[in-house]
Task: inverse folding
C-alpha cells in the first residue's frame, strides 16, 4: 500500500513540476517526492522489476536509433573514445587525491568514492562486504548532481517520433515480445558476472540486430512507456535516501559535492579539448564523458533530442572497461579457488 502511495505522490509531483515548466519536471519531481517520502517514513518502495523495465525501455528506444549505424560511424568515434578514457582516468585521480589529501579519507574509501560507475563489481573485486556510509553518500551526490545538472542544461522537447507510433500489428508485436524476452535472458547472464545496467546493454544490441535484419523498421516507442520509465527511474533514485541520515548526508555531502564537481569540471575540460581537435559539439562530448548515471543521461538526452547513439556508445564503452574487466577478474579468481 505504501509503495502505491509513493508512486502516486511521485507521479503527482512530477506532473505538477512538468506543467510548471521546470525542465524534466517529471523526473526531478518523482526524485524529490520519493526522497522525502522514503527519508521521513524510513520506507523504500518495493519495485522488483522496475529497474529492468527502465533499462529495457531505454535500451529499445536507443537501439531503434541505430538504423543509420555503420562501420564508418563507429570508426569516427574511436578518437573521442580515447579522449573519454583519458578523461575518466584524470577525473578519478584528481578527485581521489582530493578526498585522500584534503578530506583525510583512507585510500580504499577514496578509491571507491570516485569509481566512475556502479559499485557492485569493484566491491566484489576488493572483497568488501559493504561500502561505508560516506562512500554511499558520495555516489548518491554524484547521481543526484548529474541528474539535476543535465536536466536543467538540456531543454525537454516533445518528441513527435515517439508520439506518432503506428499501431502494433501481429508480426511487429511478436518481434517486440521476442526482443524483450531475449534481452531479459541475456541480461540475466550478464547480471551474474557483475555487469551493471545489463538489460539496457542487451536491449540496445538485440534491437540493433533486429533493425539490421529488417524487423521493427516502422516501430517507435510509445510516449507512455517512456514517461513511465521516467517516473520509475525517479522513484528508484529517490528511494536510495531511505538509509542515509540527514546528519551523515550533511557531513559527507560537502566532500562528495566537491569531488563530483572536480570530476565534472575535468570532463568539461576534456570535452572542450576534444571538441576543438575533433570538430565536435563540446556539450555532447561533455555528456559522453560524464562519470556515470547512464540511465539518467540517456533518458534526458533522448527527451532533449540530442545524439543519444553517440553519447550512449561512450557510456557503454565506459561500462565495458570499468565493469567487464573487474567482473572477469572476479570470475577468474573464483575459478582458481575452485
Result:
Amino acid at each position: 500500500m505504501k509503495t502505491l502511495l509513493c508512486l502516486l505522490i511521485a507521479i503527482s509531483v512530477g506532473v505538477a513540476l512538468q506543467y510548471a515548466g521546470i525542465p524534466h519536471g517529471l523526473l526531478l519531481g518523482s526524485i524529490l517526492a520519493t526522497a522525502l517520502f522514503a527519508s521521513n517514513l524510513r520506507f523504500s518502495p518495493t519495485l522488483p522489476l522496475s529497474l529492468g523495465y527502465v533499462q529495457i525501455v531505454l535500451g529499445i528506444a536507443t537501439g531503434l536509433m541505430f538504423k543509420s549505424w555503420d562501420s564508418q560511424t563507429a570508426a569516427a568515434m574511436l578518437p573521442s573514445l580515447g579522449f573519454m578514457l583519458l578523461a575518466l582516468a584524470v577525473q578519478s585521480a584528481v578527485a581521489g587525491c582530493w578526498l585522500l589529501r584534503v578530506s583525510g579519507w583512507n585510500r580504499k574509501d577514496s578509491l571507491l568514492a570516485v569509481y566512475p560507475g556502479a559499485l557492485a563489481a569493484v566491491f566484489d573485486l576488493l572483497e568488501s562486504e559493504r561500502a561505508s556510509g560516506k562512500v554511499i553518500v558520495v555516489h548518491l551526490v554524484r547521481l543526484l548532481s548529474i541528474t539535476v545538472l543535465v536536466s536543467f542544461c538540456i531543454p525537454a522537447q516533445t518528441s513527435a517520433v515517439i508520439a506518432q507510433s503506428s499501431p502494433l500489428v501481429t508480426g511487429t508485436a511478436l518481434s517486440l515480445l521476442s526482443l524483450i524476452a531475449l534481452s531479459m535472458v541475456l541480461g540475466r547472464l550478464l547480471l551474474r558476472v557483475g555487469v551493471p545496467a545489463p538489460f539496457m546493454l542487451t536491449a540496445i544490441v538485440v534491437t540493433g540486430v533486429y533493425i539490421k535484419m529488417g524487423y521493427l523498421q516502422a516501430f517507435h516507442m510509445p510516449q507512455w512507456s517512456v514517461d513511465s520509465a521516467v517516473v520509475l527511474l525517479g522513484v528508484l533514485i529517490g528511494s536510495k535516501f531511505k538509509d542515509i541520515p540527514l546528519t551523515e548526508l550533511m557531513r559527507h555531502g560537502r566532500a562528495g559535492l566537491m569531488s563530483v564537481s572536480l570530476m565534472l569540471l575535468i570532463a568539461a575540460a576534456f570535452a572542450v579539448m576534444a571538441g576543438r581537435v575533433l570538430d565536435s559539439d563540446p556539450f555532447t562530448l561533455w555528456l559522453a564523458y560524464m562519470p556515470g548515471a547512464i540511465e539518467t543521461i540517456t533518458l534526458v538526452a533522448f527527451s532533449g533530442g540530442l545524439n543519444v547513439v553517440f553519447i550512449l556508445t561512450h557510456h557503454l564503452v565506459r561500462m565495458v572497461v570499468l565493469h567487464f574487466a573487474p567482473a572477469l577478474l572476479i570470475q577468474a579468481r573464483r575459478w582458481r579457488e575452485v
Q: What stands out?
A: Residues 246-278 form the longest helix (33 residues). Residues 158-164 have pLDDT under 50 and may be disordered.
